[in-house]
Amino acid sequence: MNIGMHGGACGHSCCLRIENMSVKIGGDSILSGVNLHVHCGQMIALIGPNGAGKSTLIKAILGQQEYDGIISFSVPGQRKRKAVIGYVPQSPTFDPGDPLTVADLFACCMSRRPAFLGLSRSMRNKVLSCLERVHGENLIDKRVGTLSGGELQRVLLALALEPIPNILILDEPLSGVDVEGMETLMDMLDELRKSYDLSILMTTHDFHMLPRYADTVALIDHRVVCEGTPEAVLQSEEFCRVFNRKGGIL
Ligand code: ADP
Ligand code: MG
Q1: Which of 43, 85, 140, 248 is 20 to 30 Å apart from 228, CA to CA?
Q2: Exposed/middle/buried for residue 237 (C-beta within 10 Å: 0-12, 13-18, 19+)
Q3: CA 103, chain centre distance (Å)
Q4: 23-38 tens-digit pLDDT
């Protein structure tokens, strides 16, 4: 079912297009007949029960999961259809006793210099400017394992924003983040989306955030069960059926 304006024909500004895509793992059909368009500068949220195939869909977009069908990007002003994807994985865990600092984490990802040699001044400045994008300069010397859920998400977001991607993909960025932190993170994503004309695709179970921030919601249960505006999807029959609820949300 398709509700709202984003499921129809896609013009030249379309950034990510998934057509008749399916995934089988070990003979089991995990996803089938998935059609989705993520338009430039838009935020799309994937919702659905655990095991519905949301993370599998993300892995396929990232090229980490084999699939049938088509996943293509079109980047305005670029002839080659190659998009830069920023990816924030589902909350990785770090040991609080681990000495790895935020600066070390960036150095591991961005520099060939061994972390034990410490950061060069120019690398430290680069890390600071990356952290500035998420208002997180104060986190640079903190141990990664001691960050709060919201702080860790901001650090991972800063990593995903270097270089600035065409599309940012976040797998359950709100899990492990308190309510206040959720709003901060969503406001930040909204700000980044506008500043950099980013397309954002995220999965979440925090449905109440969606009407304020998402342009489109796709309800996934091994296929796209329903797609449209947050208001329409959260009140749809399909939403009630999939989540076994008497009424929708809102
Ligand atoms: P979601 O993110 O919606 O919770 P997933 O995409 O992680 O769901 O998983 C969808 C289904 O695919 C689950 O039943 C899961 O067990 C299965 N699955 C995912 N990856 C693998 C894998 N590598 N091997 C076997 N089964 C997998
Ligand atoms: Mg998942």
Answers
A1: 85
A2: exposed
A3: 23
A4: 999 999 999 999 999 9
Q: pLDDT by residue (tens digit) across 110-163?
A: 877 776 777 889 999 999 999 999 999 999 999 999 999 999 999 999 999 999
Distance CA 158, CA 163 (A): 10
Instruction: Provide the residue count of the chain.
Output: 250
Give this prediction's pTM.
Answer: 0.91
Paired with 72 in beta bridges are 17
- Out of 21, 23, 25, mutate this one to test ligand 1's pocket (max ligand atoms within 8 Å of CB): namely 25
In this structure, the dihedral spanned by the alpha carbons of residues 72, 77, 80 and 82, taken in order and rounded to 10 degrees, is -50
Q: Any residues with Cβ below 6 Å from ligand 1, and which?
A: 25-26, 30, 48, 50-56
| Architecture of the 2-92+164-242 domain | 3-Layer(aba) Sandwich (3.40)
* Domain assignments of the chain as residue spans, ordered by start: 2-92+164-242, 95-146
Task: Give the separation between CA 164 and CA 192, rounded to whole angstroms.
Answer: 10
Atom of ligand 1 nearest to the CA of 59: 6
d(CA 85, CA 143): 26
Mention every residue, 6+ apart, whose C-beta is less than 8 A from residue 241.
none
